[in-house]
Hints:
This protein is 31% helix and 33% strand. It has 7 helices and 12 strands. It has a 5-stranded antiparallel beta sheet with strand order 1-2-3-7-6, sandwiched between helices. The chain has a 5-stranded antiparallel beta sheet with strand order 8-12-11-10-9. Strand 11 and strand 12 (219-226) form a beta hairpin. The N and C termini lie close together (10 Å).
Amino acid sequence: xxxxxxxxxxxxxxxxxxxxxxxxxxxxxxxxxxxxxxxxxxxxxxxxxxxxxxxxxxxxxxxxxxxxxxxxxxxxxxxxxxxxxxxxxxxxxxxxxxxxxxxxxxxxxxxxxxxxxxxxxxxxxxxxxxxxxxxxxxxxxxxxxxxxxxxxxxxxxxxxxxxxxxxxxxxxxxxxxxxxxxxxxxxxxxxxxxxxxxxxxxxxxxxxxxxxxxxxxxxxxxxxxxxx
Length: 228
């Protein structure tokens, strides 16, 4: 899949929405959560199961993230009644388009596509350096050099991309036993390129993925497409 020369970022009349028109069959919707719980709740449709799920959440931040995803569904032309989860917890749309969902702190995002996709958004923070050895292995071949040549901020940014890639690929495959460190390998990339390659080696299967990423307000948004 070639990198789309016509990639456009569009902001709707509501300033909290960002829509990325990746190509004719794929769109990414991003929401910056500034609304209160009540403001979000009053403007979304929820099925009965998710009403119960919402009330069981202990964190209001988690509740607002959950509701903002439903806002994004409506922005994409769907609602909560069009969304269902399989036995492994993977989301699906009733019209058979592929969907992936993410939220972190005050951002949420979804990707809707005719292709198999996964998405993740993560806050860039120092903590990721302390846990890097839990999810990086082959990537250390270029990360170690990068840490010496670049500043700490860029090192954190690269680690956040790698985590987002692995999270996105895990969401696509969604198979028990997949290890971020042992089974998902991210190829060398440069931050300014905003794209790269990755592979999943698991259960005698090798899958290749094309990855794209960008940064929004100290968050890293990553989305991955499974090659066919």
